[in-house]
Amino acid sequence: MKVLTTAASKPFFRFVVVAKILWLFWIAAVIIAFSAVVCATDVVTYHNDNARTGQNLKETILTLSNVNSSHFGRLFSMPVDGKIDAEPLYLSSVSIPGQGTHNVLYVVTEHDSVFAFDADTGAKLWQVSVLQSGESPSDDRKCGNITPEIGISGTPVIDRSSGPHGTIYLVAMTEESTGNYHQRIHALDITTGSEEFGGPTIVAARYPGTGDNHKGKYVYFDAAQYKERAGLLLLNGVIYTGWASHCDYRPYTGWIIGYSKSTLKLTSVMNVTPNGSEGSIWMGGAGLASDGKNIYFLDANGTFDTTLDSNGFPIKGDYGNGFIKLSTNGNKVHVADYFNTWDTAQESTQQSTKDKDLGSGGALVLPDMKDADNKTWHLAIGAGKDSNIYIVNRDNMGKFNPNNDGAIYQEIDGVLPGGIFGMPAYFNGSVYYGPEGGKLLQFQFSQAKLATTPVSSSGVTYPYPGSTPSISANQTQNGIVWAIRHFYSKDILHAYDATNLQHELYNSNQAGTRDHFGSASHFGTPLIVNGKVYVGTHSNVTAFGLLNK
Asked: Is the pTM of this model over 0.85?
């Protein structure tokens, strides 16, 4: 049937056409907006994910062609009230009461403060102190590791689904005027900084054992003897914390303590040296790692029972200086497997040229890999002070043999001179290590084995404590390795082509003083997200990005 369009109907026809066009534009705008939300990048935990890979694979702004001193540099700094030892965290599109919606950078300090900044402008959105009435941050406990005060040291963790708006969890150390010390776990609303779930909760624990600081049949957690240095881990509704000593000042043992994310109540306690001493968990600030079910970490110098039971486990339950796997089934934590070097006792010795334990480095859970026979391997990698790289099979880590390390999946000796004080990053089949006093190194995996020599290295060396690198990339393209080089209080941010570390793209000394930022935190880890790089220092967070020319 032929439809006739009359003169009177033409205006209505045009109205319908325009309405349809506007409707299509509205639908497109909604799709674009929804896609932006879906694709928005959050960084809610140390080194980007629970595997601790350090990679952001959704970075579409920074590329190999625009990260150079002509187009990239320091944008602004955000002042804070103390040292920043934790890695900053980032949330996109957060609605702040009375201030609109912002991309937010969350920063914690050793002065026991939490800051929320607009990540794009540096404007302060809110600031809270977690000190209780009559308290101050702890003194440095006569230890130079964290000085002059100890407050919030470990990187927090954020859960956007927790509470009415989302929650940031952290641990803070405080001191009363009477000399009493406290460790508390806090849960703060991400939009206001207000305490949630009836918090904070005092950290207190005991565990069966007769080791350091035992009374009767239990060892007790003493808040004065510890700091929470490792990044927090949120796993299956539980916030896991790991505890370090102050300069190996005894008495102390190795604690992992878990709290419910929704109630802040104690859920689990594990001590890895309950019948011995030492065995702290600090890993150069790296976070406890996980494959989604289990927890992996490197333990510091401490008691290891060389007498094993019939299943190959230390007869008294002491795992000092171990590469340890904890099961979390039912939120009840226990050692499921481990690896200790054949000379573990000598590595833990504090005298002479020893003290070569694993505890200075963090563990990284590697993606599944296939070997030449198409067999799939589940691996994790770690290194500490002894210059060796250790790769364990997460299904059978190797345990302990007093004669050799033959049961470990792969060990590469002597390739990290000076040792590791932090952890590697992983990207596209390579791991990147920054050893103390050595060059930044790229090692390549092939058929589930790591090459025994680096495939590339940086042109400069990294003085103590070396560096923990981070990665930005758009999936597998435009991979950039970022690292902080400590250099006589004028620390330097470096960027390298991830396919060849000899190809330096940028460093913060190239434009004279324009990009200088001062002293980065001791084991500082750069955060890269949404076209910017954030570096925590002794007094501020500095943001780098593309310059407006």
From this structure: yes
